[in-house]
Amino acid sequence: MPYLPTDVHLAHARHELAAMRALLTPLDLPVPACPGWTLRDLAEHVGGYNLWVAAAINEGHGDLEPPPAPEDVLAWFDANAAQELAALALDPSTPAWTFGDDRTVAFWRRRRCFEFLIHRWDAEDAHGAPGPIDAELAWDGVLEAVEFFAPRQVRLGRIEAPAYAVEVSDGARSVAFGPGEPAVRVEGTAEELLLGLWGRRPLPGGVDLSHWTP
What we know:
Helices cover about 50% and strands about 5% of the residues. It is mainly alpha-helical. Helix 1 (about 5-20) runs parallel beside helix 4 (about 105-125), helix 2 runs parallel beside helix 3 and helix 2 packs antiparallel against helix 4. It is globular and about 50 Å long. This is Maleylpyruvate isomerase family mycothiol-dependent enzyme.
C-alpha cells in the first residue's frame, strides 16, 4: 500500500519532472546511470512514456507506440509533459488502464512520481551533482519496489521466487519480500535503499536486489 497520499505523489511528480527538465542540457552529455545513454536519450525515454501514460489514462489502454522524437526533442518533451501532467491532475479515482491492481489515476500518480524522481537523479548524476531525495518519499518508493515490483517480476517469470524472506529497513520501518521469517536484512537510509533497489547505487552490505525492479 502507498505510504503517502495521492495528492503528495502528484505534487512530487510535478516537482521531479520540472527538476529533470531543467537539467536536459547539453543533450549529448552522457548519463552514467544509464550506460550508453545521453541526456537526449533520457529525454526521449521519459517523453515517450509521458505520451504512453497519457493514453493509458485518457484512452484506457496500454497499446500506444509513441512516435520517434523529432530533432527538437525538448519542445516535444515539453508538450508531452504537459499532456501527461494534465492527465495526472484528473480526479485520482478516475478509471485508467494500468499494469497493477489499482486501475485508477492514483496508480499513475505514484508510478510516475518515482519514474521522474529516479530520472531526475540520473540527470543530476550526469552533471556530477546528484541531489538528495526526500526521506518520506524515498520510503514510499521502497515500498513500491518491494511490495509491487518484486512480486510482479516473479509473476512475469523475470526472476525466481525467493527461497527465503529479505527484510529491507531504514531503521525505523521495514518491509519484507519472500516466505517465512527474514533470513537477510538490508538496512540503510530510505534514499540508499531506493537508489540501491533501482540499481543506481550499491545497497548497504553489498546485497544485490536490483533484479526486483525492471
